[in-house]
Amino acid sequence: MKRFVVTFARGFGSGGKEIASLLAHDLGIHCYENRILTLASQLSGLDENVFNAVNEKIRTNGGFSGFLRGLPRSRNYIAKNEKFVSDDKLFEYQCEIIRNLADQESCVIVGKCADYVLKDRDNVVSVYIEAPRAFCLQRTIEHMGVTEDVANATITQTDKYRADYYAYYTHGNYWTNPVNYDMTLNSERVGIETCVKLIEQYLIIRGFITADDIGVKHAQEKK
Predict the structure, then answer these.
(1) pLDDT tens, residue by residue, 85-102
(2) Is 173 exposed, middle or buried (0-12, 13-18, 19+ CB in 10 A)?
(3) Which residues pair with 110 in a beta bridge?
(4) Left, alpha or beta for 110 (phi > 0: left; psi -120 to 50: alpha)?
(5) Within 145-191, where are the H helices?
(6) Which of 28, 37, 140, 176 is the most interior residue, by most CB within 10 Å?
(7) Which residue in 114, 123, 97, 166 sits closest to 7, CA to CA?
(8) Are 83 and 161 in contact (CB under 8 A)?
(9) Between the CA of residue 211 and those of 99, 173, 215, what are the distances in Å?
(10) What are the tens digits of pLDDT across the range 118-176?
(11) What are the Cα distances from residue 106, in Å, to 85, 92, 126, 185?
């Protein structure tokens, strides 16, 4: 398996995060999302001495990837009234972490403008997952355990937040622009599992994996 990175952008409730996780599991690689933000948030608030100490810890633990896997996962959702506020320092740390991960290992990265950050690399596959509103709404109600009104507000505000975030840090590009991505998939029409299979087939076509690499994680777990 050659080293590669698959980046995911996704509409809220579309199942993009689930697809990313399933893909990573099938290929036996790591999937990174909120841990990147957790580490970047920590680093952006540190003074120089503490930052150097953290950097040393990262190096001795096998790089950012080893350090990230030791951080807790965040399951917080954007509040329905939260607006995007730029934080250039935080984004700089996120970019550093994303590039470091891409240098070290094959992995899946969800969100964080990763497709833009890694756009000049030829071993990156960028995917955008979207679905009709009714599909996203039902998934959000089920997964969050909220009312339809709350689900609607969450989808609207979260997608606006992501669009504003992307436009700001990509200097005017827009989040849903199909030119940004190798693949754009409708998760309702295609299906969650089939989306994973299509992405895997594309990785085979690009020469990043072989058919034998698919399901390697499952085979290792059965031993």
Answers:
(1) 777 888 888 898 899 899
(2) middle
(3) 8
(4) beta
(5) 148-169, 187-190
(6) 140
(7) 114
(8) yes
(9) 27, 35, 9
(10) 999 999 999 999 999 999 999 999 999 999 999 999 999 999 999 999 999 999 999 99
(11) 31, 22, 14, 22
CA angle 117, 160, 23 (to 5 degrees): 50
Edge-first strand order for the sheet with 124-130 is 30-32, 107-110, 5-10, 124-130, 183-186
Taking the C-alpha atoms of residue 17 and residue 165, their distance in angstroms, rounded to an integer, is 18
Backbone phi and psi for residue 22, each to the nearest 5 degrees, phi listed first: -65, -40
152 neighbors 137 (Cβ within 8 angstroms) = yes
Predicted structure pTM score:
0.82
Q: Which residues are CB-contacts of 88 (< 8 A; sequence separation ≥ 6)?
A: none
DSSP string spanning 84-146? ----HHHHHHHHHHHHHHHHH--EEEESTTHHHHTTT-TTEEEEEEE--HHHHHHHHHHHHT-
Q: What is the pLDDT of residue 80?
A: 47
The CB density around residue 148, as the number of other CB atoms within 10 Å, is: 11
* Rounded CA separation 114/107 (Å): 12
Side chain identity at residue 217, one-letter code:
K
Q: What is the CATH class of 5-216?
A: alpha beta
Give the containing element (helix H, strand E) for 36. helix 34-44
Residue 8 phi/psi, 5° resolution? Answer: -125, 130
The whole-angstrom separation of Cα 200 and Cα 202 is 5
